[in-house]
Amino acid sequence: MGQDHYYYDEYLNRSITERVAERSYLPMNKLLLDLINKHGSDFKLSFSISGSAIEQFEQYAPEVLESFKKLADTGQVEFLAETYAHSLVSLKNKNEFQKQVKMHQEKIKELFGLEPVTFRNTELIYSDEIGEKVADLGFDTILTEGAKHILGWKSPNFLYQHPQKKKLNILLKNFRLSDDIAFRFSSQTWAEWPLTTDKYLQWLKQTEEKEEIINLFMDYETFGEHQWAETGIFEFMRVLPDKIIADGEFKFKTPAELSNELKPVADLHVPYPISWADEERDLSAWLGNEMQDEAFEKLYQMAERMEKVSDAAINSDWQKLQTSDHFYYMCTKWFSDGDVHEYFNPYPSPYEAFINYMNVLSDFQIRLAEYDIEMENNIHFDELEHMTAVQMKKVLSQMEVEDIAKILSLSNQVVNEKILKYVGKRKQQALSDVDQIKNYSKEQLSRTKKVLQDLL
Fold it and tell me: DSSP string spanning 72-116?
């Protein structure tokens, strides 16, 4: 602690990513691409891929991203927005939440050329308060769990709306039909085993005629990892769309299409957060014991300080520390959901997960304290390096020549070249008349730093 700041098990990360790519992502993506090529616009689907998962694909399995790009190119796939780090930040910090969502949107657009318009929060976590934050970000549709304790007598097979933000539509997971595939498909103790495509189609057709939609949401690892290829899951998924399309009673739609085509039937009030996890459909999988609560609180105590950090390595580790899996590994629910909580878990017990996480967090705090001290003694203007031409011109047009001169005296060559390129001829001439002294006082530079931050 305080010495080595590398927190990752490279071998385990690589081996798990490569294993799941081979068993699940690659064969399922190929299957879906074949179905789209076969059925064209009659077959559609959506994906939600976190920034953390994308980074792992980039590092260990780039062929997975290529297969997703092929699906994106068909025009029959919608990519949803979510938190970049697959985090629980929507429960804690609005600024960090907005930052992560925008980071994710930019990443999806960069990779697939698509602008996400539908939001799926981490683990389908949702409440009225979270809905307001999502609506404020400009989204008009969000996905969440069709939890019984929220719906009461209502059906998940309709479009609903936020009680205050009326323009935010809510699509609910049909958890029974989703979980029949995701969890029960290969269970030989299940009364309905084996599940066939004909049987599943009949269940779909038993939906009341007045109901408008059936939303099937499931972990992508369902296919080939949770349900192994030997169970017949791939053949089931290959044939099921054929049967549904041939039957003619149902049509495949993306979430954005459903939100545009249907009208909400009622408000949906969710005063407390729900999720799609476990039997309770609440937050207890991540924030259900004292260890989880302590780790969560200690993590987000640093959020305000992190807003001022420009160091790439620290920011990258900050994102990874927020991933919800860390808190999931600390869960002590070992009864009906115990087998689920052990999946992909690298720790022998939740207590060891907690100890390891808190040790890493303590080391991270030391790094952050060292960074704070360094920043107190050094004033930088790194913000300018990442600005677009339009942003740079706007900021420079509002700054005094003296302030620009101070920035030029401390910035690197890249920033200086951008400043001189976009500053404008009049100020450029004025700058040549200013004595660019290299030893401005800290107070002078601090004032200039504040001017820049206010403009930003």
Answer: HHTT-EEEPB--TT-BSGGGT-HHHHHHHHHHHHHHHHHHHS---
